Amino acid sequence: MKRCTTLCEVYFLLMLADGILTYITISDTTRISNPLIDNLGLGIFAVVIANIIAFIAFAYLSYFLYVKYKTKYIKAESSLEYACGLFYDRTDKPIWLLYKTPKHLSPLIAVFAFMYIYSMLLSKLMLVVEECLLLLGADLSAYNSIFWGRADVAVCFVCAIILMFAWFKTEYKKSADSK
Known about the structure:
Layout: H1 2-25, H2 35-38, H3 44-68, H4 79-88, H5 96-99, H6 106-135, H7 141-144, H8 151-177
């Protein structure tokens, strides 16, 4: 529970810092590269609501991952076999991971929670650093040209994929160490 609370506190502080720094560095909404404002034409209120929803999801997923979810102990020879055992109760069909719906949703939610929590922390940290640099007068034109001005999204996507593999490896090691 302590890890869950700490992660929520850190995320809340980063979210608060992001909001305050955005307010300080950007006087009008034309310089905010948020799809809710850019593409949908919604105002800053929609961004606040989206951040509240993201925090609620963050808090719930943190709780699920670190309080509710328990490692499943499966006899497997690799993390791939472990993933098959988690989702299908069989370790001999790794191809099923590509197309078959999992029988057990709990591990699927747990891996998504792991990816979401740490990707969101990284994303918020990147936004806060970017806004601090803007406040100091740094030229971020090269940074803003990466991935249509959303380098944080690109980094978080790559991070989420890496975290997915890391979660399976960690859970497999926990399971293997319990033998």
